[in-house]
């Protein structure tokens, strides 16, 4: 079985400190076969991570974490995976993000939908087809166990696809949460998610790393 961590931030997110090489090195150390780079509202990290990945036995899924709005208020964040090109900055509503990702054959997952620390997802009523939308059932920065439990319960009730990820903003968090799937490749992973043939594992990281990663705003990187 292979392992995929589908929620990782690099130095191209303002609140993260992980260099591309550090991300890949830690993925290898933790036995992670596939990672997804999901920086906040940007794809600036794609080329650096792809270039660095040539020297590591790790496959890279291109993604973004997009903050979405409803009635001009923050409605939560969506993880956009298996992208071929960056999403336009102007796209920031739930229906528009879902449509734009679908055009690329990608996958949208609701990030940490019940996190008490961050904006809970407030756009369930904006989604009409739950067969093509995933829920992140384990998020490594949801420090309240109940938050991930609620995500798992809702995913089961809605019979949605699922993803899971460390939400790492430092290298030390990578691989603390992962999806297990059959195969090795990105295509294998995507097919496994779509066919509900994945299993989420892992635990939340220490809250200390949330403090450490904020030094990224001051230019710290490791």
Describe this structure in words.
With 222 residues, the protein is of the alpha/beta class. It has one domain (2-218): TIM Barrel (Alpha-Beta Barrel). The protein is built from six helices and nine strands, in the order E-H-E-H-E-E-H-E-E-H-E-E-H-E-H. Strands 7-6-5-4-3-2-1-8-9 form a nine-stranded mixed β-sheet, sandwiched between helices. Strand 6, helix 4 (145-158) and strand 7 form a beta-alpha-beta unit. The longest helix has 14 residues, at 145-158. It starts with a strand and ends in a 9-residue tail after the last helix.
* DSSP summary: helix tally: 6
What structural class is derived from the secondary structure elements?
Answer: alpha/beta
Instruction: Please identify, by name, the CATH architecture.
Output: Alpha-Beta Barrel
What is the mean pLDDT?
A: 95
Q: Specify the CATH homologous superfamily.
A: Metal-dependent hydrolases
Defining key terms:
222 residues; TIM Barrel; single chain; alpha/beta
Question: Which helices and strands occur, and which strands form pairs?
Answer:
Elements: E1 2-8, H1 20-30, E2 34-40, H2 46-52, E3 59-70, E4 73-81, H3 94-103, E5 107-110, E6 133-139, H4 145-158, E7 161-165, E8 177-181, H5 186-194, E9 199-202, H6 208-213
Parallel strand pairs: 1-2, 2-3, 5-6, 6-7
Antiparallel strand pairs: 1-8, 3-4, 4-5, 8-9
């Amino acid at each position: 079985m292979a392992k995929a961590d589908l929620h990782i931030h690099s130095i191209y997110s303002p609140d993260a400190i992980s260099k591309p090489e550090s991300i890949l090195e830690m993925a290898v150390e933790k036995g992670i076969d596939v990672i997804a780079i999901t920086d906040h509202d940007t794809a600036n990290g794609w080329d650096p991570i792809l270039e660095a990945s040539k020297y590591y036995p790790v496959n890279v899924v291109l993604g973004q974490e997009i903050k979405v709005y409803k009635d001009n208020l923050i409605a939560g964040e969506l993880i956009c995976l298996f992208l071929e090109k960056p999403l336009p900055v102007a796209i920031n509503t739930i229906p528009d993000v879902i449509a734009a990702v679908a055009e690329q054959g990608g996958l949208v997952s609701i990030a940490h939908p019940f996190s008490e620390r961050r904006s809970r997802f407030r756009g369930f009523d904006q989604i009409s087809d739950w067969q093509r939308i995933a829920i992140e059932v384990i998020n490594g920065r949801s420090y309240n166990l109940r938050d991930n439990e609620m995500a798992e319960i809702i995913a089961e009730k809605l019979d949605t696809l699922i993803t899971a990820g460390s939400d790492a903003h430092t290298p030390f968090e990578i691989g603390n949460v992962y999806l297990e799937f059959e195969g090795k490749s990105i295509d294998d992973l995507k097919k496994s998610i779509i066919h509900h043939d994945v299993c989420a594992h892992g635990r939340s990281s220490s809250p200390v790393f949330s403090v450490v990663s904020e030094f990224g705003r001051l230019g710290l990187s490791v």
